[in-house]
Amino acid sequence: MSNKPRLARTSLASVVPTHPQHSVSSIDQTLLVGMLSEKIKDKRLIHYISRMFKAGVLAEGEMMISEEGVVQGSICSPVLANLFAHNVIDEWFEKVVRAHCKGQVTLFRYCDDAIICCERQNDAKRIMAALQKRLAKDKLRLNESKTRLISFSKFNRAQGARQESFDFLGFTFYWGCSRKGHIVPKLKSSGKRLRTKLKRVNDWARQVRNRFRLSEIWRKFCVKLRGQMQYYGVSHNAACVIKFLHAATRILFKWLNRRSQRKSFDWNKFRLFIKANPLSAVKIYHKFF
Length: 289
What we know:
Distance between the termini: 15 Å
Mean pLDDT: 86
Oligomer: single chain
Strand content: 5-15%
């Protein structure tokens, strides 16, 4: 990633978020085995992979065998899906797309989520049309609800034109202003992802409230929040992290007070408990800009 330009240093006009529809479950097994055979000369390993596709998955007492996709739940599935995406998207982008674009284009992909940054809007439109055909060639389809052309130009933003935002890897990217008044790309936690995580906190707190002592629940809770902070603690996102911590703490307080018909403590007593057992301080773990 070090050889790729940062958003702040790149002249952008458009961004194309891309997401193949049901990529893991719709991969053509014959095509995947063919791609692997070009890279792997050990026929025994290829044979074992082919047998793994036919092994099926036992779910709720029912054996399920699919003719499409990689085996759900297998530790090999993410690797195989990533290899398929590398052949279908990455190599095609480097060998074909770059050669036919007039401006600078850059692909950032993680598993089946990707964004394509384009210096020229015409290049972005041509890539979108070509990408649909490229995926169809390998029996994949674009998720149209997650794939669209987004205007993301620093120059247009400076001229007063409103620019769109886009989500990638749990973050929302948008243009903002620095403390010195310069227009810079900023990140914040994706609202949809935050709501999903708070729901998980709610489900977890409801399940463990009567299973462990308060000290153990709090220890586990702090570990979960620490992981959240280490991932989302990036430039310009401290406010969203603090908001999440407050919301998650409120959820835990609610369920701790439902361990019996009698409330364990009120909010003031809970704050004293937090003061005696503080959470990790919010800080920027990753400085991107």
